[in-house]
Design a protein that fits this description.
GMP Synthetase, Chain A, domain 3, about 325 residues, ligase, purine biosynthesis, 2 domains, binds xanthosine-5'-monophosphate, Rossmann fold, GMP biosynthesis, globular
């Protein structure tokens, strides 16, 4: 029978046997999956693991600080933070196609890791041969790696890997669904703020801007997203919804009237969904007063946004993310 204890025991043993006296690195994304994967591998091989957090500039407000402080405090893990914002923004300049964005972000991610690896190898110690990834079962299935299902999107931690990958992969969550990952995280002693976090995609806000990704647009989306999250939390809805992507339609403008006159700004899309495992999802029937509050605050507080719209599409036919 399946228990979190069994899963942990099994994985710890397998990881120890696989890694031997070599070392591993693990990318922390700020999300549940990579945090639990890292904590699991940390339990197996301790200081042979170094975590790397790539700040690709596509994170939400406050997220980098959360990894730097909360996760390290909870696990005592060795953490190296790489500031790669400029590099990612340069690589993404001029790109609007969703799949191209995902591939670029996935590729740059691995390259930054290889650089970090080189730096870690330069320290004394055994070779760094392994890369830990928080790939879940639904990621495997949707990338066509599990059951022969057609490829829907190239998830950046599965299908977007470059061909010249230099690491062997450790994917201890590959057979698990999200709720199981949360149970494993809890069993490993991770705090609720990490374990109960809603999912956030590896490519970050890069795939929540419909159109080209620029620093300016990211800053704008970060503000809108922070407001939506704040109000959803204040309304006590965090557990009720699976996640609520906030999307900037950067290539769309509409006419509005704000303050003293006419504006020609961008719409923000709210995409609250309820789901069991992200394979399917339903749009969340959020209370109108919560929606109203979010809409009013975003249009008042975020420059260049003059309209907030609600996505009322289930998955299928819509995916949860817009790209
Ligand atoms: P979709 O948009 O395919 O999303 O319905 C399903 C779930 O996966 C998340 N997601 C990702 N997670 N890397 C990730 O780690 C990715 O590239 C990625 N793309 C989507 C999405 O937020 C949702 O929870």
């Amino acid at each position: 029978t399946w228990t979190t204890g069994n899963v942990i025991e099994e994985q710890v043993e397998a990881i120890r046997a696989l890694v031997g006296d070599k070392r591993a690195i693990c990318g922390l994304s700020g999300g549940v999956d990579s945090a639990v994967a890292a904590a699991l591998v940390q339990k197996a091989i301790g200081s042979q693991l170094t975590c790397v957090y790539v700040d690709h500039g596509l994170m939400r407000k406050g997220e980098t600080e959360q990894v730097e402080k909360d996760f390290v405090a909870a696990t005592g893990v060795q953490l190296k933070v790489v500031d790669a914002e400029e590099r990612f923004l340069e690589a993404l300049a001029g790109v609007s196609d969703p799949e191209e964005k995902r591939k670029i972000i996935g590729r740059e991610f691995i390259r930054v890791f290889e650089q970090a690896q080189a730096e870690i190898i330069a320290d004394e110690g055994p070779a760094v041969e392994f890369l830990v990834q928080g790939t879940l079962y639904p990621d495997v299935v949707e990338s066509g790696g599990g059951t022969g299902t057609a490829n829907i999107k190239s998830h950046h931690n599965v299908g977007g890997l470059p061909e010249d990958l230099e690491f062997k992969l450790i994917e201890p969550l590959r057979k698990l669904f999200k709720d199981e990952v949360r149970m494993v995280g809890q069993e490993l002693g991770l705090p609720d703020e990490i374990v109960q976090r809603q999912p956030f995609p590896g490519p970050g806000l890069g795939i929540r801007i419909v159109g080209e990704v620029t620093k300016d647009r990211l800053d704008l989306l970060r503000e809108a997203d922070a407001i939506a999250r704040e109000e959803l939390t204040a309304a006590g809805l965090d557990r009720e919804i699976w996640q609520c992507p906030v999307v900037l339609l950067a290539d769309v403008r509409s006419v509005g009237v704000q303050g003293d006159g006419r504006t020609y700004g961008h719409p923000i899309v709210l995409r609250p969904v309820s789901s069991e495992d992200a394979m399917t999802a339903d749009w969340s029937r959020l209370p109108y007063d919560v929606l109203a509050k979010i809409s009013t605050r975003i249009t008042n507080e975020v420059r260049d946004v003059n309209r907030v719209v609600l996505d009322v599409t289930s998955k299928p036919p819509g995916t949860i993310e817009w790209e």
